[in-house]
């Protein structure tokens, strides 16, 4: 039996190295990105529900972008606080701000996709750039950097939505590492000509891509997925590219408690079950081999089976993965999380296992 486990362990490491070196290497070891500034008209779309405090802080940063031709579409999704009042003040203050008011609709109550659809239809420009009301751009060059990746053929741009750093917080390092790893995955697969997801905190696409797939209609009943399910459906190797210059990042405030973050990840994982078959499979294989690597290594070392071979294999696996993730973390300005990499990886593996089991017995809560 231990011999079988040993050969299974070799297979698990081989699959892991394929992911980290071949797939993730497309991003990790790729050349720095070049930007070709464009002057195409852009519509920045922000959907908000009960975001009065964030709206006060972050909408002015969008209005101060260094870009010659853009509008800001502010969508108030039937907020019960003063978000709508704040948006109306911004509309008066800035000439390029337009407001879309969404009333409660029994058929689409609490559905962000319905609100976004109204905002997309209201946008006067063909090129759309999305972020959330609780996000802010890393610089006043955000629109310029994201739009610079549009070409005649590349009509979907996947950006990086980072989280703020919190000093002396291990939870913050876990959140940022997980966010970084997710971005490495979807950036790498996009470079492999097989894009499968993006994040609504930083995403751009041409309006025609939205209407080519009839918007969100195929997954309107699924409360989440206005970003990743749409990209999973609309993107392909020809129309999708990535943007990862530091000036193109957006930032959000991370969750402050483990429970808040755990609930957030439950929503994300539940949405992934609606991805295309290949995408579900490759994500499942990646997670399964991560888990089996830890489990099989513990079993083999506990029984001291070929430990002089097992130990170098474990160390070698960590060296290769550390190098791959290290190069990527440098590009995404997340180098500090790599100091904790082995510990964070183990925590994430068992957290994801817990999320999977929890989601089997109860459904996560979605849009506010």
UniProtKB/TrEMBL annotation:
<dbReference type="InterPro" id="IPR029044">
    <property type="entry name" value="Nucleotide-diphossugar_trans"/>
</dbReference>
<protein>
    <submittedName>
        <fullName>Glycosyltransferase</fullName>
        <ecNumber>2.4.-.-</ecNumber>
    </submittedName>
</protein>
<keyword id="KW-0808">Transferase</keyword>
<comment type="similarity">
    <text>Belongs to the glycosyltransferase 2 family.</text>
</comment>
<keyword id="KW-0812">Transmembrane</keyword>
<dbReference type="InterPro" id="IPR001173">
    <property type="entry name" value="Glyco_trans_2-like"/>
</dbReference>
<feature type="transmembrane region" description="Helical">
    <location>
        <begin position="339"/>
        <end position="361"/>
    </location>
</feature>
<keyword id="KW-0328">Glycosyltransferase</keyword>
<feature type="transmembrane region" description="Helical">
    <location>
        <begin position="309"/>
        <end position="327"/>
    </location>
</feature>
<feature type="domain" description="Glycosyltransferase 2-like">
    <location>
        <begin position="43"/>
        <end position="155"/>
    </location>
</feature>
<keyword id="KW-1133">Transmembrane helix</keyword>
<dbReference type="Pfam" id="PF00535">
    <property type="entry name" value="Glycos_transf_2"/>
</dbReference>
<feature type="transmembrane region" description="Helical">
    <location>
        <begin position="283"/>
        <end position="303"/>
    </location>
</feature>
<feature type="transmembrane region" description="Helical">
    <location>
        <begin position="6"/>
        <end position="29"/>
    </location>
</feature>
<keyword id="KW-0472">Membrane</keyword>
<dbReference type="GO" id="GO:0016757">
    <property type="term" value="F:glycosyltransferase activity"/>
</dbReference>
């Amino acid at each position: 039996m231990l011999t079988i486990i040993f050969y299974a362990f070799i297979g698990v490491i081989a699959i892991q190295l394929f992911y980290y070196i071949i797939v993730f290497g497309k991003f990790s070891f790729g050349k720095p990105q070049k930007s070709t500034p464009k002057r195409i008209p852009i519509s920045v779309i922000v959907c908000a529900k009960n975001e009065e405090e964030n709206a006060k802080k972050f909408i002015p940063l969008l209005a101060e972008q260094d870009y010659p031709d853009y509008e800001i579409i502010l969508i108030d999704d039937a907020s019960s606080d003063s978000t709508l009042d704040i948006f109306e003040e911004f509309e008066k203050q800035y000439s390029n701000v337009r407001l879309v008011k969404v009333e409660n609709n029994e058929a689409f109550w609490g559905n962000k996709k319905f609100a976004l659809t109204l905002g997309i239809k209201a946008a006067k420009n063909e090129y759309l750039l999305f972020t959330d009301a609780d996000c802010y751009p890393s610089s006043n060059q955000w629109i310029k950097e994201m739009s610079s990746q549009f070409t005649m053929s590349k009509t979907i741009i996947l950006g990086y939505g980072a989280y703020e750093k919190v000093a002396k917080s291990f939870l913050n390092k876990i959140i940022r590492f997980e966010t970084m790893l997710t971005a490495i995955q979807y950036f790498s697969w996009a470079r492999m000509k097989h894009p499968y997801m993006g994040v609504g905190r930083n995403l751009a696409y041409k309006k025609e891509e939205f209407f080519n797939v009839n918007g969100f209609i195929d997954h309107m009943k699924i409360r989440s997925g206005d970003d990743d399910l749409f990209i999973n459906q609309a993107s392909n190797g020809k129309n999708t590219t990535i943007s990862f210059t530091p000036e193109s990042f957006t930032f959000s405030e991370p969750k402050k408690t483990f429970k808040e973050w755990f609930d957030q990840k439950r929503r994300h994982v539940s949405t992934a079950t609606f991805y295309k078959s290949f995408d579900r499979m490759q994500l499942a294989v990646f997670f399964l081999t991560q888990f089996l690597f830890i489990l099989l290594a513990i079993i083999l070392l506990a029984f001291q089976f070929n430990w002089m071979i097992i130990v170098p294999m474990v160390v070698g696996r960590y060296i290769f993965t550390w190098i791959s993730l290290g190069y990527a973390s440098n590009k995404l300005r997340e180098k500090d999380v790599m100091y904790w990499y082995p510990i964070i990886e183990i925590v994430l593996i068992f957290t994801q296992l817990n999320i999977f089991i929890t989601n089997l017995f109860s459904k996560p809560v979605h849009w506010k």
